[in-house]
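Field guide to reading this record: the first block holds the primary sequence, the second block holds the structure written as discrete tokens, and the final block holds curator observations. Each block starts with its own label. This record concerns Cyclase, catalogued under organism marine metagenome.

BLOCK 1 — SEQUENCE
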Amino acid sequence: AMFDADSDGAAEHVYYNGFKVASDDTGKGLYGKVAVVNLGIQHMAESCLQGRGVMIDLRTHCGDERRMVGYDEHMAIMKKDDVEVSAADLVCLHTGFADPIVAAATAPDLEPVGAVCTVLDENDRKLLNWISESGLTALISDNVAVEQSSSFAREMAESGPVLPLHEHCLFKVGVPLGELWHLSKLNVWLRENRRSRFFLTAPPLSVPGAVGSPATPVSTV
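BLOCK 2 — STRUCTURE
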């Protein structure tokens, strides 16, 4: 990915805040083969991911069919459920994708879980801008990749990133993504109590240089 991190008009091979992963002279990684030690998951493990969680319940409004949700529909759902996202919030998207995964684990004869439940429309520029402008701290979902995963069939653009939302969040604005979280029970409680906010603690493993890690999230309501 390349983007203009310092607003000088030139796109460069850098992560957010201008962190470079390769030498301008040799093209080799600056911090080993993976080259992301400065942005490794160990920093998040030391400080922990903790704060106010906000649940956006896509499943109730969109059902279980595989389809993409863009900015307009996303905002309409938030308005209908009286959900507000403020700066530093940990935003959780409930699509229901975790339920068939859990069911398949206890019923091996079921068909493999495929392309079901909603995903965010990664090509909707207004949606990506909302992620930046809302000031949210993390974007978490119970599905694979939050956006349309390259693991499933999709129409590819002529050029550009395979996962535009990943590029936008991880490379450009430094927003971590959570995938395959089991949000169903929490979502049920929140809807029954007419709430969308809760306290969330989700420390990852401390693996220096790793680009991601399993988390052990706990919600308090």
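BLOCK 3 — OBSERVATIONS
The radius of gyration is 18 Å.
The mean pLDDT is 85.
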